[in-house]
Input
Amino acid sequence: MLQQYNKKIHWLSFFRVSIAAICLFNFLSLQPDFDLLFGTQAYAPADISYLLSNKSYIPSLVKINEALNTVLQIKYDSFLVAFRIAYTLSLISLLIGFYSRLSAIISLALFVVFINSYGFYSYGFDCFANISLFYCFIFPVGNYNAIKPSKNIEQNTKKYLRILQIHISIAYFFSGFEKILGFNWHNGESLWKALHNINYASGINLDFLAGTPFFLIMGWATIVLEMLYPIFMNIRQTRKVWLFGIIGLHLSIAVLMGLTFFSAIMIILNIAAYYIPYSNSGFELKMLKHFFKKNNSLTIAN
Amino acid sequence: MKKCLFIMFFAIHFTLIVIACCLSAYKSYCEFYHFQKNTTVLNTVEKLLKPMPVQLYGDISACQYGFGFFAPNVKSGGCIVFENNTNIYTPEFYGKEAKNRFSVFECHISDFLLKDKATLQKNKEQVLYDSLRIKYYNLIYKAISAKLFNQNKCVSKQSNIGFTLFEYPGLAEYRKNIRQRQIIKLYQINTILNN
Output
């Protein structure tokens, strides 16, 4: 019983809290530069740059503001302030589990509108944040460790776990597959180029390894880790080794390329999908064992 | 019934993801190796993803993205550089995240402007669209130059702005003792600005 409780509570609540937290941190990290990126005084002002986003079915922030201006006269920068507050509050609400599904759909809607408005600034992090917020809305993430848990608690959460696992597996497979198509990934040149890209420079110099087969091996290791992810992450015996490798890969991306938020969200997704549901040594379980032992009210089956 | 609907929904969901990933892989492969895309196959697949409900669902669930990060080739790094009276300015930000995002934007608009002109003109239907797009991107460059001009309190009216590539020698070149980073001006327009 305890194991079952552990499995449910951990991965779904961890998923909700950590996804809301990483999205929140990412959004907060943009605040000092918000006007320079998105406002009317931005380097590429919103009234010019909004045409770059060509998704016609999702309204952009500029279009919403224009529509609102027919009723209320709101300046675009003031409208952006309201958006910033609303998005922050919806993420905090999702994080604490206050009406989780409603918070998730509000966060997702605001995020999609934001990304549609400024798609030209978006990169890998936004793709996975969008996917994760969508799953926060679909999955019963408000069932566990929430300030206001759902009334009808769904018992079988395994199917949601499978969905997350399948999605991540597809993502890794195609990421590896596209890399193997490029000949520069076969000789270590691509990895070398990525680490020396001026836009991702981290200050850590690995040039002393140029004379060794380090870049060749690491390039192939990246391809193998990603392409074989769907197989080895789903075999119990190899799961931990593969997870260790994937987390190592993302930590390297964070440290050597400075893509911290992208790496963080990938690590979160891996832990939520492949570590917590199979882990029997969670902190929470230990706490519960301690509680039940103290109360002598239940035999612990572990 | 509920279970059946659940399975059907996610079967469609994952089919869309796989189609989008295959399409992205095929397109980037053809672009990288300069292969002629098979338009019949491409049009058929794109038709599947074109209907409004599919596109809308794709935007909301993010299932229309491919996952080919840094593949099949890693792009060269560069940035927008504004020159005024021999002084050089680049857009400055407080945080690393904003810098990262702006570099995505710089590459996004410059990629198109740097496209092989011959490739652009081959597809005649696209000529008008492409020429308008070039004008539009130049307008964005001018907006950035106006911002940098005012921000840095520049004096000289004559200035220019463009995309500069910072190319580090490749692994093979580095092993041959070529260590100098190459600075290549790939695109440049002149602007006349007043305070």
